[in-house]
Amino acid sequence: METPRNLKVGAALDEPDLKRAYNERLFTEVAPQYDRITRILSFGRDAAWKRVLVARLPALAAPRCVDVACGTGDLAALLRDRYPAARITGIDLTESMLALARERHAGRRIEFEQGDMSRLPDGDGSVDILTGGYALRNAPDLPAFLREARRVLKPGGVAAFLDFSKSDSRARAALDHFLLKIWGGFWGLAFHRDPHVYGYIADSLDRFPARRRLREVFSAAGLTVREGRPRFFGMIEILLADKAGP
C-alpha cells in the first residue's frame, strides 16, 4: 500500500478517490501529533478560532449537530459546551483520529463514527447545525460535500466552517502558498522527517477555490454564505452558511 511518503501529492489531490485514500493514510500517520502540530502551525490560535465559530452559531435548545472531519473531537466538545442537550456526532475518515477523540471525550455524550463527509448517515432535513474544522480543503469532492451538507440540513439549518482561505489576488495567493509550504515543510521534517506531510496544507490550498469563487461553489450547492470572518491576516476564515430554499 502506498503511504503519504511515496504517493505524489499532486496526483492525490486531483482525483476524489485518490484524495480520499491519501487523506486517510496521511491523517493516520499524523494523528498522534495532530493537536500539537495544529497549535504550532496556527501560532496557538486554533482553539480561539474554533471558540469564535461556535459562539456565532444560533441559540437552540437541543439541536442535532454533526461535525465532519472531526479529528480528535475538539470542535465537537465545544458544541457540547454550547448545547448541553444536543445530540452530537463527530464523523471522520480516519479511525486513529476517532480513537483519540473517543478517549479524550469519554463520558461527554458525543458519538464518534467513521464515515465519509460526502455520504453522511443522517436523513434529509434532519440536522440543525453542521460544522467542520479544516474540512472544506480536505473534502475529496467539495461540491459533492456541500450538496450533501445541504441535503441533511433542516430548513434554516446552519453550516459553519473554519479553514485556510485563498486570496482572490494571485500575487497574495502565491505568497501565502510559499509561506505555508516553508512553514509546513519545516515541521514535517521536524516531526516526520518528511516535508510533504504538512506541506500538503499548501498544496491543498493551491487547488482550493479563492474567496469569491468559494462562495459561488456554496451557492451552486444550495448554501448561502451569510458571514465570513477572516483571521490571521486573511489566511484563515470562519464561514457561516445557511440552507437556501426549502
Q: Explain this structure to me?
A:
The chain is of the alpha/beta class and 246 residues long. It is built from ten helices and seven strands. The chain has helices at 9-13, 16-30, 34-41, 46-55, 74-82, 95-104, 142-152, 170-192, 196-206, 211-220, and strands spanning 64-68, 87-92, 110-114, 127-133, 153-164, 223-231, 236-243. It has a seven-stranded mixed β-sheet, sandwiched between helices. α5 links the parallel β1 (64-68) and β2 (87-92). α4 (46-55) packs parallel to α5 and α8 (170-192) runs antiparallel to α9. The longest helix has 23 residues, at 170-192. It is globular, with a radius of gyration of 17 Å. 40% of the residues are buried. Residues 1-7 have low confidence and may be disordered.
The largest β sheet comes out as: 7 strands, mixed
Beta-strand residue percentage: 15-25%
The number of distinct β-strands equals 7
* Gap from first CA to last CA: 44 Å
Average pLDDT metric: 92
Helix/strand order, N-terminal first: HHHHEHEHEEHEHHHEE
What global shape is seen?
globular
Q: Assembly type of the shown chains?
A: single chain
Continuous helix count: 10
Tell me the strand order in the biggest sheet: 3-2-1-4-5-7-6
Radius of gyration in whole Å, from Cα?
17 Å
Low-confidence stretches: 1-7
Question: Helix content range of the residues, please?
Answer: 40-55%
* Sheet/helix structural class: alpha/beta
